[in-house]
Amino acid sequence: MKRSTCLLSILVIVLMIAGSGLALERGAILYHTSEDGKMYGLTALELPCSLIDILILREVGSGHVALYIGNERIIHAVREGVEETDSRNFIPRTDLRRGFRYVGAKIPLNYDDPAVWSDTRKSQLILFAKQQVGKPYDTNFSHQKGEDGDFTCVGLVEYVYENFEGGTGYDITPFGYYPETGTGRSQYQTYNCADTLWQDDTRKNSFAEDIEFSQIRHPSANTLDMGRKHNGERYIFFPYTQYIQTTTTPVATDVPVSGGGGSDDDDDDWWECFIVTAAYGSPLHPHVTTFRDFRDRYLRTSTAGRMIIGAYYKYSPPLARFIAKHQGAQTATRIVLLPALVVTYLSLKLEPALLWTSISLILGLLLLPVYFHRRQRPE
Description:
By secondary structure, the protein is an alpha+beta fold. It contains twelve helices and twelve strands. It is globular, with a radius of gyration of 26 Å.
């Protein structure tokens, strides 16, 4: 009896110890890649060439950072500004389908030592982070750490940790500019798009490994005022630089960090943000896959196509939600989309010459009834 009681007591203690480490610590820093698993520094040191990608689609390939504040909530800087939202919205389902990938979570060293990081100190950190909610996003990375009140994602987290105790907080990444000082690496990139008049423009990008700012030499950096200015050069603080710092240590993630809809106020399914998916009722519908493949093969590879995608993402949600909620609207939209579906399918399956021949044949067949109707009309 005594032995069983002893074993039961040990089991309870073990479960209590294990259970105490299950919840992700508030103050943990979350990281994910950009589209197709790209994350500047983790993958190649490459930036998009087109202004459309940067200004409209916001596809810089830098990855993303958020601060976990407990109770499955995060604070992060997104294009709409600094927001507090559910942790599952860190990587919305739309981004999962585009190849965004979770990298991991990190916490400061000695974060489990109450003598260094007391509950009061952690509460001060979270309170200071909440005070930043509503501040604007730094769209061209010219400040990044709130100098003018606007932030990038990694700049926000760095700023919160540095300043939550009146400017004497915890410095994750030492300040500095690479390649002037610090340790890092560089890589040449050849840009060729409308912004370079379709001419090869080879420039060197850098990645800082032990200080904040990496030098970039993008062909449109001056036009966009992109990056923080320092001694005539342009610099960006990239998330992966913060991730690899030895001032933090990895920690297991046991809260949902993906699969959300991207907004606390939107209870609709994520696919209702897109007209085609709303019309067919599921992101897995074969016709939706056809349109998606056409987008990736043709639209994303041209400046005009990327402009169309940007406008579609911006203006489609209200109409898509209406279509998704009304069966008649879904049927009507599928009918309207039918010619586009045929052309899209053929463009993916046929060579260009056969494609245009097929389109001409389809148009001819569609116009045939009109022709015979006019021939039969009395003079």
